Amino acid sequence: MLTPNDVFTPGRLPIRSTNVYAARGEAEELFKKTLSRGLVPVVFGEYGVGKTSMARYELRQKEQTNQLVNIESVADKSFEDVFSRCLEKLGYTVKTKRIEGSSASRTQEQSMQAEGGAGGWLKAVIASKKSKTTGSTDSLEEQFVVTSPTDSRVIEICEQAGVALLLDELHRATPEFTADLSKFIKSYGNANCQKFKIVLLGTSSDASRLVSSDPGIDRLIQEVHLKSMTDSEAEYVVTKGMADLGIKIDEDTVDRVVKTCVGSPSILQYLSLEVAEAAFPRKPREANLLDVQMALKHFVESKEARLYKAYVAAVESVGDIRYRKQILKAMAECEDEYVTMEMIRTKVSEYLETEVPSTALSGPLRALKEDRYGPVLNDVERPDGTGRLTNYTTFKDPALKAFIRLQLLREAEAGS
Length: 416
Prior knowledge:
With 416 residues, the chain is an alpha/beta fold.
């Protein structure tokens, strides 16, 4: 018998057969089309919007056949680490280390392993995937030596094995990693692979960072913008999940869950699980509006208490205008990950129903980037890592964006 945890998956990926998953419309179709064309999708969107879930769901068959190489985060990783994970996934033994100098010699060891390196990039010892037995003698078959991030031999073996390489949190990559990845994508494109796939997950600036390292890869990259869940996508998750659990839920309760999740798959999964757990022991199994109210209360007071504290500390408690609160509302309601002053000014003017000049917002905006309020906002780094972009702002904690939308909804309902 299915339980609520079998169906709804807050904190986990909905990739198992019992999990409920909603297709993500145009973004998911573009993602699949990009892979089928041999291009490299760069999936971006706000935190918690479901980038990893969508990619892993579409690659679930690769995972089932042990062909998925998933790098959960490229932070603090080198491209040697990626090569090692790919080869070790396929059964090879890989030992790597950086070397100094502009050249290195190749040696042949008695074990039939090979060493090599060039340009100070990589020194790799890659043992055979299989051993051969002749009578009572075991022997190892020499494979190859990895010497650079453009080494076609790694691409060849990944192509033969039908590997899907998923690199997550690309925005946390070092400049060296980004440069090596650009070179690798260039070689990947030249190899004309049919079975080897590469998927990148990150932010809206990651494609620009890659192309700035090597403009020649622009033709190989396809940006895929995954936006907040639509109401129909969220409604499918609730109705399908509850039906799988034999829980009756009326339209008003479904609408309440959909409205409350504010387009965030992670919030939706959490609220749905809480509601399902409340209704599951009942006879008959029926969910109601009070279940949603209690689920929301638990979410704010326990699951995301830290975000609530950050929000309360950042906004003004008195006054009619409350510019800091208006700025955070504008930031949360913008689909863009990086927001300009003009975008903020336009929205705040709409909220206050009067033309608000940028000079009135610059002080409160600057204050939200200071320690006394968290900070809750940050300037945006340049794609090449050489400083800050002028006039662009983003959330310091990406999870705040959806939470602020949720909190504003609660405040509006409490005041109505």
